[in-house]
């Protein structure tokens, strides 16, 4: 089992923990379709049912 040689500082611990937070998807409201969608994703507007 791996054991650290010395205690990690509060700063290093904080940097590590900062990446664990839950991120919500970056949504925007499209005025043309009237729906929420993700940035940098292609919208299929001409979809036939």
Task: Please provide a written account of the structure.
This protein is of the alpha+beta class and about 50 residues long. The chain has a domain at about 25-49. It is about 20% helix and about 15% strand. The protein is built from one helix and two strands, in the order αββ. A hairpin with a 4-residue loop joins β1 and β2. The chain is rod-shaped and about 60 Å long.
Give the secondary structure arrangement, pairings included:
Blueprint: H1 10-18, E1 27-30, E2 35-38
Antiparallel strand pairs: 1-2
Mean pLDDT: 81
Any idea what the shape is? rod-shaped
- Major sheet details: 2 strands, antiparallel
Strand order of the largest sheet: 1-2
Q: With helices defined by DSSP (H or I, 4 residues minimum), what is the helix count?
A: 1
Strand content: 15-25%
Task: Tell me briefly what this model is.
The protein has 49 residues and is α+β, with helices and mostly antiparallel strands. Helix content is 18%, strand content 16%. A hairpin with a 4-residue loop joins strand 1 and strand 2 (35-38).
